[in-house]
Every structure is written in C-alpha cells, then in structure tokens.
Amino acid sequence: MKPSETLRKAIQRADMSRYALAQRAGLSESMLCRFVQGRAITSDTFDKLVGVLGLELVPKTRGRTRKEGK
C-alpha cells in the first residue's frame, strides 16, 4: 500500500472531524477533503498530517541486504 493510501485510511479512521484535523495540522478543511478524495499533497502537508495523527513512517526494505564479506 502506498503511503498516501495509508494516510487516507488513517484520516478516515481518525477519532476527530476533518475540520479538527485540518485545524490541528494548520490546513484548510477543503484541502484535506481534496486529499482524501484522491488529490496529491506536498511532502510538508503529508508530514503535518502524519504528525497530527501520531503516525510513524518506517522505510520499507526490499529484498535481503548483503552482509560484508559474503
């Protein structure tokens, strides 16, 4: 699942209104609604929403990492 999809789902499950979420993130409610409906947002806006929702982004590793000497 893409990070934007994960964030959209977290917004939909949030225990606060979209208005309250937008206010806490310093965004307009209309901008938040447009994102939920599928529009793109900046990385700064993404980070604000992640912070307000208390989410943590963890890099996904692909495949195995090769140890030195092998």
Quick overview:
By secondary structure, the protein is an all-alpha fold. Helices cover 54% and strands 0% of the residues.
Helices and strands in order:
Layout: H1 3-13, H2 18-25, H3 29-36, H4 43-53
Helix pairs in contact: 1-4, 2-3, 2-4
Describe this structure in words.
The chain has about 70 residues and is mainly alpha-helical. It has a single domain (about 5-55), classed as 434 Repressor (Amino-terminal Domain) (Orthogonal Bundle). It is built from four helices and no strands. The termini are far apart.
Quote the CATH topology.
434 Repressor (Amino-terminal Domain)
Task: Give the number of DSSP strands.
Answer: 0
Mean pLDDT: 88
Tell me about the largest β-sheet: none
Q: Beta-sheet strand percentage?
A: under 5%
- Which runs of at least 5 residues are low in confidence (pLDDT < 50)? none
Order of helices and strands: HHHH
The quaternary organization reads as single chain
What structural class do you assign from the helix and strand content?
mainly alpha
Approximate shape: elongated
Distance between the termini: 32 Å
- Whole-angstrom Rg: 16 Å
* Second CATH tier, the architecture: Orthogonal Bundle
User: How many separate domains?
Assistant: 1
Q: Specify the helix fraction band.
A: 40-55%
- SS element count, helices: 4
* CATH class category name: Mainly Alpha
